Prior knowledge:
By secondary structure, the protein is of the alpha/beta class. It has one domain: TIM Barrel (Alpha-Beta Barrel), CATH 3.20.20. The chain has helices at about 5-20, 45-60, 80-90, 115-135, 155-170, 200-210, 230-240, 265-275, 300-320, 320-330, 335-345, 350-360, 365-375, 375-380, and strands at about 20-25, 30, 35-40, 65-70, 90-100, 140-145, 150, 180-185, 195, 215-220, 240-245, 285-290. It is globular. The model has no long low-confidence stretch (mean pLDDT about 95).
Amino acid sequence: xxxxxxxxxxxxxxxxxxxxxxxxxxxxxxxxxxxxxxxxxxxxxxxxxxxxxxxxxxxxxxxxxxxxxxxxxxxxxxxxxxxxxxxxxxxxxxxxxxxxxxxxxxxxxxxxxxxxxxxxxxxxxxxxxxxxxxxxxxxxxxxxxxxxxxxxxxxxxxxxxxxxxxxxxxxxxxxxxxxxxxxxxxxxxxxxxxxxxxxxxxxxxxxxxxxxxxxxxxxxxxxxxxxxxxxxxxxxxxxxxxxxxxxxxxxxxxxxxxxxxxxxxxxxxxxxxxxxxxxxxxxxxxxxxxxxxxxxxxxxxxxxxxxxxxxxxxxxxxxxxxxxxxxxxxxxxxxxxxxxxxxxxxxxxxxxxxxxxxxxxxxxxxxxxxxxxxxxxxxxxxxxxxxxxxxxx
Length: 393
Ligand code: PSV
Ligand code: MN
């Protein structure tokens, strides 16, 4: 028997109330391209101010209670103090990203570097991140490597895979039982000829070799144009190895634009596979994280827009009439099945999300609530002097 629209809306509201979206600390810092990093008034000068800005996004959306850190960008003397600061503001520390892409030693690679001394250094950097996790209560070590080759013959492709497996194993061996190592892939950039973890298959192979605590991270901007990302989502869910998303959107390469800005339909199709795979549950092991840079737009509102875009795609996916879809699929009704999906996609879910926020004691429109709060003007006036945090600084 088919569910009614009302029943689907009620269960969508319950699922949306339980969904959480993790914010990247670096989204609040100055950012740009290799041509220019622009500075904006009020941008944080340290990780404490980044966490404070992230807490604003949570305050107005109610669904963004964690902030990921990037090490060494977010190194502080006392991580206990940073965690306590986060807790005071109603948020907590999420994934710890290990940065092995901004040190001269890593020009020819980090965990795959031909020189064992550089590999040792890169392993040590990851172990330092595990210490940050212990000090902050974080459970996810997120690994993205810039490693790769610009020219055929520059290094031996296969030896690099062996070195990668061995280095990852050295890091994995140091995980605590509650920790996960989540391995992100990206098809190109900064390497242009061959990347050492270029795709989900390579990431998955390394995760399978490592063990149950290793999972794949899918960054939506890290695929060749035309790639069917929801297929990858379905496949990784099937095998229980989808650890997290880095959500963003792209028109050309790894643009790191607001998620859902370039292709909201793709985001809906991804969330449809998530709902289909019962992976929206908070205990499913799949973390919904953002990885974005707001180069030309204000940062806190940019993050609010990102969160609401993920919520809209999720809400639409939750409204799919699953029984009708299954029936159409069983009977080979191609247009009927497609129509069921499109009906959900074409639903205006903004009133439903307004209801959700009201039920959580929040304003119906978080974007307007933030604008009216005066926070942007306050930080612009208060954060004067000192060095603004920036991507790469
Ligand atoms: C690499 O392009 C990446 O997606 C990784 O997640 C990095 O940690 C992040 O971007 C840096 O912005
Ligand atoms: Mn990413």
